[in-house]
Amino acid sequence: MLIPHPLLGLRDAQEFTYLGDANMMARPDPTGPDAEAAFCDYVFLRDNPAGVHRELWFHEQGDRSWLVVTRNTVTHEILSAELATDVARKDA
Amino acid sequence: MSRIQGGLIDRSRKLSFTFNGKPYQGCAGDTLASALLANGVQLIGRSFKYHRPRGVFSAGSEEPNALVELSGGARQEPNTRATGIELYDGLQANSQNHIGSLSHDLLALNDLFSPFFAAGFYYKTFMWPRAFWEKLYEPAIRRAAGLGALSMLPDPDSYDRGYLHPDLLVIGGGAAGLMAALTAGRAGAQVVLADEDFMLGGRLLAEDTAIADLPGAAWAKEVTTELQSLPNVRLMTRTTVFGAYDHGIYGAVERVSDHIADPGASVRQTLWRITAKRTILATGATERHIPFENNDRPGIMLSGAMRAYANRWAVTPQAKAGDPIAIFTNNDDGHRTALALAAKGVALHGVIDTRAGAKSLGDYETFAGATITGSKGRKGLKSIRIAQAGRSEWIDCGALGVAGGWNPNVHLASHHRGRPVWDADKLTFVPDADSLPGLHIAGAAAGQGTTAEALADGARAAMAALSEIGLSAAPADIPRAGEEPTGIEAFWHVPGKGRAWVDFQNDVTVKDIKLAHQENMRPVEHLKRWTTLGMATDQGKTANVTALAVMAELTGKTIPETGTTIFRPPYTPVSLGVLGGGDSGANFRPHRLTPTHAWAESQGAVFVEVGQWMRAQWFPQPDEIHWRESVDREAKAVRDAVGVCDVTTLGKIDVQGPDAAEFLNRIYANMMGTVKPGKVRYGLMLREDGHAYDDGTCACLAEGHYVVTTTTANAGLVYQRMEFARQCLWPDLDVTLISTTDAWAQLAVAGPKSRELLSRIVDDFDMSNDAFPFMSCSELTVCGGLRARLFRISFSGELAYEIAVPARYGNALMERLIEVGQDLGVTPYGTEALGVLRIEKGHAAGNELNGQTTANMLGMQRMVSLKKDSIGAVMSRREGLIGDKRRLVGFVPVDATQPVVAGSHLITQGDPVDMEHDQGWITSACYSPHLGSAIGLGYLENGDQRFDEEVIAANPLEGVSVRLRVVSPHFIDPEGERLRD
């Protein structure tokens, strides 16, 4: 696969390490009322859809950016790739 | 020799080869198959199940029958298709799958018992007694039904890999592929043209078609010459594109030196990864046959293959030259073979055409509305039975060509679920034009099979592909070529009682398909698995569509309703050696060498692989016989004097920025942000699920500048996780990270004389305990100006330091320390002594931080700060983790001569040894030279309250139980006075 790195252009997927569901970025509030339950969901429950999926890739053999890649897990079509930093700032 | 006139072989270059030990001669340009046929050798192998005599069936990589073991010794390669092996001088080949000689195969007996070996036989028979399957039935079946054998020796060849990034990849160098490459090449595009053959031209080499008043093969040669002259075009012959992968990536194998008798130092094959902006699939088509009774005899082959042997290799397939040849067809293409043979003066019986109104296209006889209903000839075709108008007649026949129509080679187009579409006029599956993004399909592969169609389609596809990537090509001048007749009728097999083979390689007959239907194995997926149709090296290239047609007939459905055949990579078999691409032996994975590696090697160190690192395990002295003598000496030297150990492999992460302190507080479970410049603090990292993850130190070199150390194993992972935290969780913290593991050589200098040793190399630096106490750090210079970092930390429990210098000075620093410390008894020590020292001190390492343990179990629960959030803090407070009563403690054997074995389970004395009574386990163990016995660390239920109790360390795997006494994990200096001294 080729991943369209927002800074470096098309890069081979072999340069990346895969983590999984981009919901990993939504770390719960540790001071929230049900923090423990929220953390259990956050740590143990993942979506694994056949279809469009937002997922985290680390450009380990490259510029060490974490990317949020939107990919169709059936066709492997990549719909977008963004810097995780940008996504995290936007969501915050 | 049954050579005829013409052909593309070089008769002046004779090549010697052997088949089953017997010497033969062929010509340059031959394949092994054409050379054997030229020598009148029809019988080449035995079939998979029934051991029926088999000969050459095709002229390409679709070959189901003529499989041989190539070469001998370690280079022996089984199941190689004789039709694709380029002949070279000295080639050795042997037939396979027989006991005794090829012509008197003892297992031919299987053929008589064929009713027992029908489809699915192994699911039905050999069921009882159950134990016999593994010991008797399966080995016997494997022996009888098999293909070639491996040499069982290491592969002596070398392999390579390469990467290409063309604008356009053209797969297949026939009429369509050449025209596409020419169009794109002339337009200046970067083009790669790959073809599995050793000559470009595809079917043009096998036909007598004219293009632009030239013979097709001559036109192909002219185009090849022009393409070779274009610097932007790369021609890759002997290269099979075997798979289509995501985003325009294709896998290909180039057979670099398989065709050279003595390849010397050349690699054997190269694995190419081709990332193309656009791709043209111009893979042509494969002919299918028409099953009839006993249609598998040597001498019966595809009609198009027969034409190829005549036109390209100047050979006809009879055992005896001059024996007449017949053609069996349901379409016009069969007549082209008759015409080609007639033009070369080959004796012909004529064409048996299933179509009622069929007429001859030339000077030969045509039996219209006729079929073939049988054949004779045990080891080679002798006669055929022609049935016409209710009568049948046996006639002598030296060879028979069978023409059942052509199937486009859709394989790569279906590697991504692309489903071919049935074309009811052409009676074949054609690929879906949108099967794969970026892929254009041209020529016979798209069902555009006449020469004129293929040329025009290749040019069209190239123009379309280039325009999609913003390149323009001048409209190609398409050369004049003939429109061959392509009429065909649906005639799939000759009905009859005898066995009519559909899939030759797997011995699947029409009867087997009927049986599968009768047993309700009707979906194509079931049909395939019940009968083994379409499996093994040829993947049913000549069989699948015919089998579908037979099943369609049985179910009364249409062919597209019955199913379709799609394919997975690889297109043809690929050797595992080339898939490794040379990454074998020493190249299996890279070795990382420590900065002091050269020095350690010169000292005769024994090395151990730690991840990718090669670390010195111990340094044997000449008089030391057993490894433990060396390790005990090294460990003692540290406790008594001073030792030096390379600890570069521990991860180092440089953390800088105004928010670095806050960032570290969130990474570490304990409070880290308060560590002051010039100080070092021990830190524990948790996983987000609350379990212990990694430990190390964090040194504050200056305000907002920290160096984090990690364990060797987790160096990369901790860095990755910290980047995740920085970028994905807390992007607003102003902090930057970089891994400096390889930038700094770091040496541990440990022992009561370590201060004295280091004071001899530092430049004007106060080493006193007051000026530089335990857990201090500083930047300084050593050895007269060399930049260095000094940390007063201790893994061994002794007065100790770690000193870091730029990596390139690591070896020199080691040499200097050894040189200036001779009078102090300075001793290099390896990872084994390092382990002994830390176990004696009770320091946790990888064995204690194995992912199942918690801060609680390590006795560090109080380190998990309640004043702040950090990764894992919330979940570390879960009831199950807080309530865990196992604690890290030390163990010594009650009988000092007994060993302590890591992994042993701990059981309270008197309790049964079972999981229910499991009280914990031993994590680390070693022989302690200071205590004079084995010692261990381990987790024990309520361990911190059980000192002096005797427990059982059970090792049921080896049937051993040892009584251990529970002690403090700090075997040495429990008060920690030495390291603060």
UniProtKB/TrEMBL annotation, chain A:
* Highest taxon of the lineage: Bacteria
What organism, scientifically named, is this protein from? Thalassovita mangrovi
Its name, as the record gives it, is Sarcosine oxidase subunit delta
What's one Pfam family the UniProt record gives for this protein?
Answer: SoxD
Q: Which GO terms describe its biological process?
A: tetrahydrofolate metabolic process
GO: which molecular function terms? sarcosine oxidase activity
Q: What Gene3D superfamilies does the database record attribute to this sequence? A: Folate-binding superfamily
From TrEMBL, chain B:
**In this protein, which residues make up the domain named Aminomethyltransferase C-terminal?**
886-973
Asked if the record carries the keyword Oxidoreductase, the reply is: yes
Answer yes or no on keyword Cell inner membrane: no
* GO terms for MF: sarcosine oxidase activity
Highest taxon of source: Bacteria
Residues in FAD/NAD(P)-binding domain copies: 167-295
Cite the Gene3D superfamilies for this sequence. 2Fe-2S iron-sulphur cluster binding domain, sarcosine oxidase, alpha subunit, N-terminal domain, FAD/NAD(P)-binding domain, Probable tRNA modification gtpase trme, domain 1
What range(s) does the GCVT N-terminal domain occupy? 597-868
Q: Which UniProt keywords apply?
A: Oxidoreductase
Q: Which SUPFAM superfamilies does this entry report, sorted A to Z?
A: Aminomethyltransferase beta-barrel domain (SSF101790), FAD/NAD(P)-binding domain (SSF51905), Folate-binding domain (SSF103025)
In the UniProt record, the signal sequence range is none
Q: Which residues form the SoxA A3 domain?
A: 497-582
Alphabetical GO biological process terms: tetrahydrofolate metabolic process
Q: Which PANTHER family match?
A: AMINOMETHYLTRANSFERASE (PTHR43757), AMINOMETHYLTRANSFERASE, MITOCHONDRIAL (PTHR43757:SF2)
Q: Which family does it belong to?
A: Belongs to the GcvT family.
Q: What is this protein called?
A: Sarcosine oxidase subunit alpha family protein
Q: What is the species of this protein?
A: Thalassovita mangrovi
